[in-house]
Specification:
alpha/beta; Rossmann fold; 2 domains; seven-stranded mixed beta sheet; five-stranded parallel beta sheet; disordered N terminus
């Protein structure tokens, strides 16, 4: 009976994959390679695991539909721990490996941007699919990103905090990296444009565990709302200590906290925290539901945003490799990114790149809240009431 269940799940995944590609002979022969630089160990290791699940599902779909001009698509994943020093060494390894036609990663913008000059000089496309730092794609014409820039994302967070939740005096806790500082500055400007004020902004280090002294300073600034510019591990830690110093104000967080792990780590402390994201598995759009159903069939769990980002990144890479043609070199792959249009995408529906900014076109946002231990669509009226 168990074998029959697995067979039916596999059949369902194959049939559901059909909308993204025509039925074709499975790919065979020498693989077409891309490289991945990202965290498989260290404090951000969970993100690398989420990436890998998205990558593998995308490869399953792409290769079942004929791959890249009949050849299978494959990847090499090098563990950077999202450390800029290690991402530089990995970049050198990839540019020296002539099989690698495109690179995906790194996870954090600082790690990616440290390696960008190497990719640019060598003429190897770096597709930083989670790199939202506004300056990331300024590294050169081989540097591309389907990630929404913080210049676009932080105004959306300001909309949530100020317009929906009604924050006027805001406390910001931010990860003290280039990404965090830049995000904080963009958010503060966007909040001011919406009639609110950041009354205190406190940075913290990625390895901090005790935030109570920082939270006391936040409390004493008397904000009416708190904004976290964090990843989900540190965001969950902060949430667990907020109430211990007497802070009862509502909390909104940047979209990088959106993950089942945020709830797993934060438990009851994260109930009532708001965020916004470009991906939510209950969204009825066909591309989303195709991805969600095939992901569930393969992994027996719900996908999150980082699974979707990774899945889409491989689809963009495959589209460019197909556009570049059989036997393409690295320059042809770079040129292909200027030409690909309306690539099927879980996040965007259909994705195209702006040739000037080398970022994907289109900004979308879904407001969420942790409710009863689960992510749920935020109800505007309820959000306003709870913030009062």
């Amino acid at each position: 009976m168990l074998h029959r269940k697995h067979f039916l799940l596999g059949l369902a995944a194959t049939l559901l994959a059909a909308p993204l590609a025509t039925f074709a002979a499975p790919a065979s022969g020498e693989p077409v390679h891309f490289g991945v630089s990202g965290p498989l160990t260290g404090q951000n290791a969970q993100y690398g695991a989420q990436w890998k699940a998205g990558f593998d599902l995308a490869l399953e779909h792409i290769n079942a539909a004929g791959g890249i001009h009949g050849r299978p698509l494959a990847y090499s994943f090098e563990d950077s721990q999202s450390d800029p020093r290690q991402s530089v060494g990995i970049a050198q390894k990839f540019v020296n490996d002539k099989r690698v036609l495109i690179e995906l990663g790194d996870f954090s913008s600082p790690a990616s941007m440290a390696a960008s000059p190497i990719y640019q000089r060598a003429g190897l496309v770096q597709l930083g699919f989670t790199n939202s730092h506004p300056d990331f794609t300024k590294g050169g014409d081989y540097i591309w990103s389907p990630s929404i820039s913080q210049a676009d994302a932080q105004p959306l967070l300001a909309d949530l905090a100020v317009k929906t939740l009604g924050f006027k005096r805001i406390a910001v806790l931010f990860l003290n990296t280039d990404w965090g500082r830049t995000s904080k500055d963009v958010f503060a400007k966007a909040a001011a444009e919406r009639g609110a004020q950041v009354v205190v902004a406190e940075g913290y280090q990625s390895d901090e565990k005790d935030f109570r002294s920082t939270l006391v300073r936040v409390r004493d600034a008397n904000p009416d709302g708190v904004v976290l510019i964090s990843y989900y591990p540190d965001g969950a830690l902060i949430a667990g200590q907020v109430r211990s110093v007497g802070l009862q104000q509502p909390i909104a967080a940047v979209g990088s906290v959106y993950s089942p792990k945020f709830i797993e780590l934060g438990a009851a402390a994260v109930n009532g925290i708001y965020t916004n994201t470009a991906f939510f598995p209950d969204e009825p759009r066909a591309e989303v539901q195709h991805f969600v159903q095939t992901f569930r069939a393969k992994y027996s769990k719900e996908p999150d945003a980082f699974n979707a980002y990774a899945y889409d990144a491989v689809q963009y890479a495959a589209a460019a490799l197909r556009q570049a043609g059989p036997g393409a070199d690295r320059k042809a792959v770079r040129d292909a990114f200027y030409k690909i249009k309306d690539v099927p995408s879980v996040i965007f529906g259909k994705a195209s790149f702006d040739p000037q900014t080398r970022r994907v076109v289109g900004v979308k946002s879904i407001d969420l809240v942790v409710k009863d231990g689960k992510w749920a669509l935020a109800d505007r009226k309820a959000a306003v009431a709870s913030a009062r």
